[in-house]
Amino acid sequence: MPEEAIAPARASRRESRNSGTVVVMSFLVIVAVGVAAWFYHRSVEEKSTQLEDSPSSVVSVLHLDSFVVNLGGGDGTGYLRIGIDLGLGIELKESSGRSPHVGELRDTILTVLGTRTVDELLTSQGKDKLRADLLQAIQERMPELHCHEVYFTEFLVQH
């Protein structure tokens, strides 16, 4: 075979190899972009789920009337006057009456407050524990409220 006939055949093979390489590289780029998009979408979903469950997802605040309770203590009895607002993850409906949950909430809160002593509530650790225990009790008894925060608006211990 003459040399002139071999050269176009070699050029044709190089072009087909180059076009095959281009196809494979294009496929790999498309796969890489797809995988990156999937990971990005997954991380965005995880962040939004974390935000929904975080305390920053408080949608409304429910104000409760002040509580006055008797406290036990080492040197006799004492009293606690406490104001509490609750950070809820649901929107409260505006109505002229009270929320249907107020009675149940007050009962739950009074039950927890009744277990405290004067000495416990005079320390910041005792107040933090009270806040955590109130939140846990409310979440267990009324999960439909999606209570995320307990705010003390008034706190007076007398003994």
Topology:
Elements: H1 3-53, E1 60-71, E2 78-88, H2 102-113, H3 118-121, H4 124-141, E3 147-158
Antiparallel strand pairs: 1-2, 2-3
Helix pairs in contact: 2-4
Total count of helical runs of at least 4 residues = 4
Count of individual beta strands: 3
Query: What is the general shape?
Result: elongated
Q: Tell me the helix content.
A: 40-55%
Distance between the terminal alpha carbons, to the nearest Å? 114 Å
Unreliable stretches (pLDDT < 50, length at least 5) are none
Average pLDDT, rounded to a whole number, is: 81
| Named CATH architecture of the largest domain | 2-Layer Sandwich
β-sheet strand percentage: 15-25%
Element-level helix/strand string: HEEHHHE
As laid out across the biggest beta sheet, the strand order is 1-2-3
Count of separate structural domains: 2
How would you describe this structure to a colleague?
The structure is a single chain. By secondary structure, the protein is an alpha+beta fold. The chain has two domains: about 1-55; about 55-159, Tetrahydropterin Synthase, Chain A (2-Layer Sandwich). It has helices at about 5-55, 100-115, 120, 125-140; strands at about 60-70, 80-90, 145-159. Strands 1-2-3 form a three-stranded antiparallel β-sheet, covered by helices on one side. Strand 1 and strand 2 form a beta hairpin. Helix 2 packs across helix 4. The mean pLDDT is about 80.
